[in-house]
């Protein structure tokens, strides 16, 4: 299942990342899993926003061999996401555009809400990440709910 490209998806994700305190030195690496088209969109928006994130497209087989502070899922079910996350050697911050319920799998679940990109937060997944997210992001998630 291929996610539809959404122009606000990269900008929203990069904005959320700007609220994260990392325990590692810069640059922060965001891995886009199995979606080269979406990876290219992220690279373009990253350049437009003059963000310092390192964006890279990775395949599932490469995921444990590259450094990813954050991982973006767009082609997996929530259950598949959870299985992949459970098998990662590190605990990256996780995002998904294919997980509207956000009850398992990724920490941040982005979805199209009328004309804008909104998101939900899975607190259980977020607590497993090594990243420290500013609590104001949780308020942003609540304010985007319909």
Describe the structure.
The protein is α/β, with parallel strands linked by helices and 146 residues long. It has a single domain (8-18, 25-141), classed as Rossmann fold, CATH 3.40.50. The protein has helices at residues 8-17, 36-48, 78-86, 123-128, 136-143, and strands spanning 20-21, 29-33, 54-58, 70-73, 93-96, 108-113, 116-121, 132-133. It has a six-stranded mixed β-sheet. Helix 1 (8-17) crosses helix 2 (36-48). The model is unreliable at 1-5 (pLDDT under 50). It holds the Pfam family DUF4154. This is YfiR family protein. InterPro entries: YfiR/HmsC-like (IPR025293).
Arithmetic mean of pLDDT: 89
CATH T-level fold name: Rossmann fold
Principal-axis shape:
globular
Give the name of the CATH architecture. Answer: 3-Layer(aba) Sandwich
- Taking all Cα atoms into account, the compactness measure Rg is 14 Å
Biggest sheet: strands side by side, in what order? 3-2-4-5-6-7
Strand coverage percent: 15-25%
Q: What's the CATH first level?
A: Alpha Beta
- Uncertain runs are 1-5
Tell me the number of helical segments per DSSP (H or I, 4 or more residues long).
5
Specify the structural class: alpha/beta
Q: N-to-C SSE series?
A: HEEHEEHEEEHEH
Quick one: how many beta strands?
Answer: 8
User: In percent, how helical is the residue content?
Assistant: 25-40%
How far is the N terminus from the C terminus?
26 Å
Major sheet details: 6 strands, mixed
How many domains comprise the coordinates?
Answer: 1
